[in-house]
Inverse folding.
């Protein structure tokens, strides 16, 4: 039984008493998600330090019928990393080893608890770069980003996390270990288990380490902020820049209301003298200085009302702050509804206009904040001024997305927050296949059984 003395004793036997935390004051930060929208309870936070200990914990939980939620940095935004049904919380952050960069292959093996910021520093020190970056980098972990197939700012150039993954080490729910970390670029020997576990949100196995592809480290990085008075023109500009600037690696989108909020809440100066409708932040990176190439392309764009080009690293960081500060500034207004969706390129402008109207029509007290990764058609829809558990908002936004042939999750995953809507974008046959995979790898439903898949009779 979850919380019973015998379960806790067995967990202590598996990882040592010092690594089984039961005091609610100590575990409070880990049972509440980053956004503050989801808070659960747990009989124990368990902190294994080796693959053998993870296996022992899973065997104990399997025998006791206790479910487990794996957790990395707890920056996930869909209620998937916290124990909302009294699960045991498996904290992977003691898996913090980073192995030397393999220079010939441009690869590195990292344990699951390594943060993305540490991985970046490690890769850069060896003259390489890791292709996934996101503003939660100081807390988000290798294991968590694999479990959610995290995207971030550089997807247009390097792809999401799945594209970086060459192999994985993971513990199955019955304690068996799968390990394939040799990093062979060519290796056609059966099912792609690493690819399957990527995006599985802790439902199929506990990831303990990964073999990751690195990308060449650019020596020159240029950042510019462009202002437009028309959304359609801004998005046309995104397409033009992608075509014209080979070294482009990030194209981000936000709007005047979000910019005002970021400036007011984070105490930043406004970048332009007058307000504009939409802003596009671009980053070009290369082994040769891309400034002239980017400047020429911007010059040729129609509809740029104003622009700022960062002259140095500090100015570049300041321009990025306008975009990356959105999540922090919005959170200061209270726990928001956070929805993260993708639209086909030709539907984005209509969606941006429509989503604000429809949400406010449904909840007049709501304020809608939009920002995202423009090159991927990925818009983050944040809604404040409504009860955090008002699922009518989720329903309105996700149905709108599905009608426009988009995805209800661009990069955060399904978690708890969107499981009821998965059938909007996945057919019954696809969901049956998902269930068959879950049953094959986790027949006792030990691993994160209340996320991703729609509710069924076992819930
Ligand atoms: C400010 C901010 C900005 C963000 N920006 C982006 C962005 O640009 N792009 C993006 O994709 N996401 C973004 N996110 C969301 C979040 O950072 C990512 O989803 C990230 O991948 C979560 O990593 P984590 O280590 O915090 O995982 P957690 O939040 O701890 O867990 C997330 C999910 O993965 C599972 N999990 C965690 N570790 C393991 C493991 N070792 N084995 C198996 N399952 C595991 C958990 O059970 C849970 O279902 C952002 C979040 C914040 C707070």
């Amino acid at each position: 039984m979850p919380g019973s003395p015998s379960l806790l004793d067995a967990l202590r036997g598996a990882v040592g008493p010092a690594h089984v935390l039961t005091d609610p004051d100590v575990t409070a930060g880990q049972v509440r998600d980053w956004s503050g929208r989801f808070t659960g309870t747990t009989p124990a936070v368990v902190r294994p330090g080796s693959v053998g200990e993870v296996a022992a914990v899973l065997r104990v939980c399997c025998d006791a019928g206790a479910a487990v939620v794996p957790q990395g940095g707890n920056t996930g935004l869909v209620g998937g990393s916290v124990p909302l049904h009294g699960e045991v919380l498996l904290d992977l952050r003691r898996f913090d080893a980073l192995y030397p960069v393999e220079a010939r292959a441009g690869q590195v093996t990292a344990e699951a608890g390594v943060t993305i910021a540490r991985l970046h520093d490690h890769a850069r020190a060896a003259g390489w770069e890791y292709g996934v970056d996101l503003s939660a980098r100081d807390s988000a972990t290798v294991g968590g980003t694999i479990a959610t197939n995290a995207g971030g700012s550089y997807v247009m150039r390097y792809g999401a996390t799945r594209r970086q993954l060459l192999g994985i080490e993971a513990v199955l729910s019955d304690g068996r270990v799968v390990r394939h970390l040799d990093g062979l670029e060519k290796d056609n020997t059966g099912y792609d288990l690493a690819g399957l576990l990527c995006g599985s949100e802790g439902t199929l196995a506990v990831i303990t380490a990964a073999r990751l592809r690195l990308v060449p480290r650019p020596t020159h990085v240029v950042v510019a902020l462009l202002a437009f008075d028309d959304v359609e023109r801004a998005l046309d500009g995104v397409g033009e820049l992608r075509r014209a600037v080979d070294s482009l690696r990030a194209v981000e989108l936000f709007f005047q209301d979000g910019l005002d909020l970021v400036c007011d809440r984070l105490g930043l100066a406004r970048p332009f003298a007058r307000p504009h409708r939409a802003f596009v932040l671009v980053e070009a990176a290369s082994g040769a200085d891309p400034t002239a190439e980017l400047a020429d392309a911007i010059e040729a764009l129609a509809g740029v009302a104003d622009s700022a080009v960062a002259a140095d690293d500090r100015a570049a960081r300041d321009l990025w702050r306008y975009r990356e500060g959105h999540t922090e500034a919005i959170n200061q207004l209270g726990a928001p509804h956070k929805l993260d969706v993708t639209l086909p390129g030709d539907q984005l402008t209509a969606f941006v206009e429509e989503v604000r109207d429809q949400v406010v029509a449904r909840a007049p007290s709501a304020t809608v904040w939009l920002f995202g990764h423009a090159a991927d058609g990925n818009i983050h829809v944040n809604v404040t001024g409504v009860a955090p558990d008002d699922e009518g908002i989720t329903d309105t936004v996700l149905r709108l997305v599905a009608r426009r042939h988009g995805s209800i999750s661009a990069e955060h995953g399904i978690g708890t927050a969107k499981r009821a809507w998965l059938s909007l974008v996945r057919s019954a046959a696809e969901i049956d296949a998902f269930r068959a995979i879950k049953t094959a790898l986790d027949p006792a439903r030990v691993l994160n059984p209340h996320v991703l898949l729609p509710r069924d009779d076992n819930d």
Remarks:
- The chain has a mean pLDDT of 96.
- The chain has 15 helices and 17 strands.
- The CA atoms of residues 49 and 94 lie 5 Å apart.
